[in-house]
Amino acid sequence: MGQKSEYEFYERIKDWNFDEFQIVSEKINNWDMYDILKDVTNEESRILDLGTGGGEKVLECFPSNVKEIIATDFSSAMIETANQNLRKSNRKNITFRLMDNLKMNLPVNYFDVVVARNTVTNPVQIYKSLKPGGYLIIRGVDMYDCHELKRIFGKGQAYHDKKPISIIDYEAVLDAGFEDVELVPLHEREYFKDKNSLYQFLLKVPIIDDFSEEERDHKEYYQKGIDMDKLEKYIVRNTYKQGIRLLRRYYGITARKG
Ligand SMILES: C[S@@+](CC[C@H](N)C(=O)[O-])C[C@H]1O[C@@H](n2cnc3c(N)ncnc32)[C@H](O)[C@@H]1O
């Protein structure tokens, strides 16, 4: 809307009161994927965790009173770590397997819930693997995550994207045929106790790597080091009594196979 037509719009409407619609609102910022997972599972449930990493979350946060959990990753090093972590745990019903999320080779109509946290997904393949009535739960890192930091560095994961990752995922889930599809923005503050802990964290995660959802001609995806002057500039502006703050922007998606 141009400025003139916006002005005319408000002139015509005359107030910003919505009482007449009797809208009932619910707060959405207590979204927690593990609470949802608990709510939608029981002793008969079979769960698939895609891109499980070293199985850290599945071992610690997934319900234990379910029939079966299969957790997959395309990295054999991750699956090896996951199996080591499994042996150290008391968990009995979890199996780790090597699998590419984009070439899923699991039985069809088999799982009650598929979980994908911070990993790539193919909703069409997930849909096939779910039983009718089964649930999909996704949690991801959205566009504008750590945006101030990325602005200082002039680069970062999804920094040049035109369309938010959350919307790309949301549309892919809708297009795959899922029902009751909900997209929830999740904003969190994370604090780091000192410069070194933030520095080590940034070396481990791809936040200021030049990753993108969109096809671009990248010269270098991965950073070779971190520009300390830029990091210092960020720290000066973002130090609080709780520590150095990163503003995180995640998203959650829940959906059901009809
Ligand atoms: C950011 S980690 C998240 C790990 C875990 N889901 C969590 O939330 O703690 C992403 C994981 O996805 C895996 N991954 C990335 N692309 C994948 C693909 N195409 N197929 C299977 N796993 C993939 C990586 O190997 C890595 O372990």
Verbal overview:
The longest helix has 13 residues. The model has no long low-confidence stretch (mean pLDDT 91). This protein starts with a helix and ends with a strand. It is built from nine helices and eight strands. Strand 7 and strand 8 form a beta hairpin. 30% of the residues are buried. The chain has 258 residues and is α/β, with parallel strands linked by helices. Strands 1, 2, 3, 4, 5, 6, 7 and 8 form an eight-stranded mixed beta sheet that branches. S-adenosylmethionine binds next to helix 3.
CATH architecture of the domain at 26-141: 3-Layer(aba) Sandwich
Total number of helical segments? 9
Q: In terms of structural class, how would the helical and strand content be classed? A: alpha/beta
Q: Please indicate the percent range of residues in DSSP E strands (runs of 2 or more).
A: 25-35%
- State the CATH topology of the domain at 26-141: Rossmann fold
CATH class descriptor of the domain at 26-141: Alpha Beta
Number of beta strands: 8
Radius of gyration: 21 Å
Uncertain residue segments: none
Oligomer: single chain
Strand count, sense and barrel status of the largest sheet are: 8 strands, mixed
Span of the ends, CA to CA: 38 Å
Q: Portion of residues in helices? A: 25-40%
Strand/helix succession: HHEHEHEEHEHHEHHEE
Corresponding CATH superfamily of the domain at 26-141? Vaccinia Virus protein VP39
Indicate the mean pLDDT.
Answer: 91
Keywords, separated by commas or semicolons:
single chain, about 260 residues, alpha/beta, Rossmann fold, about 30% helix, binds S-adenosylmethionine
